[in-house]
Each structure stands twice: as C-alpha cells, then as structure tokens.
Amino acid sequence: MSINFAIIGLGRIARNQLAPAVNQVDEARLWSVLSRDRDRAAEFADANSAQSPAPAYTDLEKLVSDPELDAVIIATPDKLHAKDVITCAKAGKHVLVEKPMATDVEDATAMVHACEEAGVRLGVAYHLHWHNGHRLLAGKIRAGALGPIRHMRVQWTFKSDDASNWRASPEVGQWWSIAAVGTHCLDLIRWIMVPSCGEVESINGMISNKTWGGPHDETAILSMRFESGATAEFCSSVLIEAPTKAEIYGADGYAICDGTLGPHGAGTIHIKGNELEYETENPYAGEIQDFVNAIREGRSPEVDGKEGARNVELLVMAAG
Ligand SMILES: NC(=O)c1ccc[n+]([C@@H]2O[C@H](COP(=O)([O-])OP(=O)(O)OC[C@H]3O[C@@H](n4cnc5c(N)ncnc54)[C@H](OP(=O)(O)O)[C@@H]3O)[C@@H](O)[C@H]2O)c1
Predict the structure, then answer these.
(1) What pLDDT, in 10s, does the model give residues 38-63?
(2) Minimal-distance CA residue to ligand 1 atom 21
(3) For a disulfide at 94, which of 12, 39, 121, 134, Cβ 3.0-4.6 Å?
C-alpha cells in the first residue's frame, strides 16, 4: 500500500519539485492538496493527479480529518509552518516540513514535541542530502579520505529583481537569503562536519541589507567553529548571480563541489584532484523515499525535527 501524501502551500517548490517527486516514488502517492484558493487547489490536484475522490481543500482541519491520508508536506512560508505542523501532528499525520522548519526556537521546539507526543514522524526537507554526488563524497569523507576536516566553505547566491518576495518582509518570513539558501548551506556544513568535528560551539553572522533597505538580510556571511577546532563559513545572497560552491578542506587534501547546490542533483565534484563519478538523480525523490521508509520502518527521517530545530537555533544565534 502506498503512503498517501497531502501538500499544503501550492507555490513554486510544491509545483516544481514536491508533487513530481511524490509521484516519482513508487510507494508514495499524491492524495490531496490545500490552497487558500479553491480553484488553485482543484487545478493543482488535477495537474498532479491527486488520487483522493475529493482532493482539493482550503481548510486544514478538514484535510487532516481524512482517515485515508497518511502524511502532509508543509510548503507554506516559513512563519506559517509551526501551526500547520502542530495541527497535522495532533490529527495523527506524519509531517515533512520545508526548510527552515521555523523562524524561532520556541516554534521549532513546539513542533518537535507535538510530533513526539502524537507518535508521528517529523522530517525537514533539506534535499541536498539526496544529491548522489554529495552522498558519495560524505561517505568518503567519513571514511577518512581527506583526513581530519579542518575547514569548509559554502557559497550559494541568486539575484532577486526586487524585494517583493515574502521572505523580504516580516509578515510570514524572518530571513531572506538565509531562509532561501543559507539554511541549506548550514545543513550541508553540519551534515559533513558534525560526525567528525563535533557540535558547533560558536557562530557569528555578518548581515547586509542596504540595497533594498528592508528588514531582512540580502547578503549574509555566517562563520562557525566546531568542538574539534575545525571552522566553517557560508555566504548566501539575493543580490548576485555567482557559481555555487562547496569546499571541504582536510589535513590530507580537499574536495570541491561546483554547481551542485540547487534542485537538480547535478554539478561537478573533485576530490584530491580526481572527478567523482555519480549518477544524476532527482534529490527530492530521494527525500520523499527516505520519509516513506522512515514511516514504514518506524524510525526518524534522515533529517529529523531535532536537526531542523538545531539549524534554526544556530540561525537565530548568528542572524537574530
Ligand atoms: N527545499 C527546497 O529546495 C526549497 C526551495 C524553495 C522553497 N522552499 C521552502 O518551501 C516553502 C515555500 O517556498 P516557495 O518558494 O514555494 O514559496 P511560494 O512560491 O511563495 O509558495 C508558498 C505558497 O504558500 C501558500 N501561502 C499560504 N499563506 C501564504 C501567505 N501568507 N503568503 C504567501 N504564500 C502563502 C501559497 O499557496 P496558496 O496560495 O495556494 O495557498 C503560496 O503559493 C518555504 O518554507 C521555503 O523556504 C524549499
């Protein structure tokens, strides 16, 4: 039997990545959807072959009262995640929430507790974990290919034409470049470094917002130190088109990821000067497959609520 998924928040990520990924995974199926607009919900459900006999909702309580629904993907703006996750958990539905899972530590903690109390899985959608090249590289680094890790640097930017995106204002967003891409950079750094370098023991942020003059970061540089003494930094920005890059420096060599940060699971990775061969696959399908497996096996998803909450906590410490 398939796991029946609903998607809430029918915007860019839901349309371009999440619904196709659910439909790509054999043991998952898109069951129902929720929008603030009934016609948009109906059109989205139809376009993505949602399987429920009545798949289009505008009311979350009604959506989660469906006994045939197993899991909900939350893809609304960041500040709205917490209340929706808690509503889904209380109804006994597993939840995969988009990143960042919340915009403050209190909300993140409440989401984790609600899912624990309800006995449902809580996953956070950091899809870079299911980039095949990243997974291969992480395995080699864990096996000691670069020796002890000393430093990691990540850059992910894009160019916004104006400040009309909801992330640029405080109503439903808290950070702009940090929420769009910086939180992924932090997740990648933690995924690669925490296993051998220990926890982040210190983090600082340099935030700039002078181009559009809004309340949120346009460019952010966050730097941190781990328990081992290793260091890391990332730069996120909404002001510049630049190549994405992740650089990992160990005592015995380094690895460079060019163009791997993005939706497509592509790009080039070199480790100690040699190109890493890997198959390009949809990382969002890997993310959905892991969540399905977590439900079936009664285990935490690879990126669980506690890891998502730690990411939020560090962002708050460095960027407010
Ligand atoms: N993992 C990734 O690769 C990735 C990439 C992009 C975004 N994300 C995350 O996914 C979430 C959604 O981002 P997005 O880029 O898809 O945003 P988006 O295109 O603006 O879509 C968000 C959707 O949420 C719904 N919504 C409900 N209340 C809203 C409100 N007050 N203001 C605006 N929209 C509202 C809207 O759908 P209805 O009008 O249909 O209700 C809207 O289309 C965010 O948490 C974001 O960080 C993740």
Answers:
(1) 999 999 999 999 999 999 999 999 99
(2) 11
(3) 121
Residues 168 and 314 in one domain: yes
Pocket test for ligand 1, best of 8, 63, 98 (most atoms within 8 A of CB): 98
Ligand 1 centroid to 134 CA: how many Å? Answer: 26
Ligand 1 pocket, 77 CB below 6 A? yes
Over the stretch 206-233, which tens digit does the pLDDT of each residue have? 999 999 999 999 999 999 999 999 999 9
Domain endpoint, select from 127, 152, 182:
127
What range defines the domain where residue 105 resides?
3-127
| pLDDT, tens only, 280-312 | 999 999 999 999 999 999 999 999 999 999 999
pTM higher than 0.85, yes or no? yes
Ligand 1 contacts CB of residue 22 (under 6 A): no
C-beta of 36 in contact with ligand 1 (< 6 A): yes
* Residue at which a domain ends, from 103, 127, 151: 127
- State the pLDDT at residue 295: 98
Task: Give dist(CA 268, CA 266) in Å, integer.
Answer: 7
Which CATH number belongs to the domain containing residue 221 in this structure?
3.30.360.10
